[in-house]
């Protein structure tokens, strides 16, 4: 009986040893980072994944302080996360979208080779003693570079598509639909806050004659040059668009009519000086400009736009190549 009991106990011990060996082997070879920290943030476990990507061996780093060994870590922010795990005895998550990485590991994945570093998700787990007290924290580091890069590329593609849907292909200014949205937003902002805002409408003089004389491709070149000059004249808060054909609109935020006139005159003179070369032919152009701020009696953006158009029509009637403000 004693021999059988001893044999059974040996079998149990061997089984436990095997399980422990398997567990240690899994910890060291698993494709995620495993780090165990004590209450003072000293490293108690540093698995093979962490060694492979950091170049630091478990034996050389065990017992050393995490934040002293990796001084680039966001210590204050990360310690707050860890303290909440100790206090609440609940796990905490750190997403790559919240912070792209915790450990500065290089990216070696062939599919996402363009990424300079490894994007990481990190889970902080409370580790309790037999008494139930949380004495250690486990950091589980996941390499999510493939997922992150794919999502970022998709986001970039969607942003590019969104941008292209707002842009007029020929002029590279906003198209009419998006520009009218900008116009409405600025009118709404004026209605809400009373900020001074002006609208500038401009038209290339004798554009039909340019097309008839030099051809439609020359007309396109003229539109591109005028648009480029408009774009270079804008502030970040301004919004310019091709309203249709050879007509353009510029919304000048936080700009009274007197300042809008200065802007319009500077722009008119710049375009007057343009020398547009097309197939060895020099084309000179001018523009007519109408400007209008938002009058107290104006109740909607359509009326505002109509008044600016009326000022533009008056500029053309006055002989073109001039600026008229709506009165």
Automatic annotation (TrEMBL):
The Gene Ontology biological process terms listed for this entry are: cell adhesion involved in single-species biofilm formation; negative regulation of bacterial-type flagellum-dependent cell motility
- Top-level EC class as recorded in UniProt: transferase
GO cellular component, as recorded: plasma membrane
EC number per UniProt = 2.7.7.65
Q: Where is the GGDEF domain?
A: 195-327
Per the record, the domain of life is Bacteria
Q: Which cofactor does it need?
A: Mg(2+)
Q: Which InterPro entries match?
A: Diguanylate_Cyclase (IPR050469), GGDEF_dom (IPR000160), Nucleotide_cyclase (IPR029787), PAS-like_dom_sf (IPR035965), Rev_trsase/Diguanyl_cyclase (IPR043128)
Record GO terms (molecular function): diguanylate cyclase activity
Q: What is this protein called?
A: diguanylate cyclase
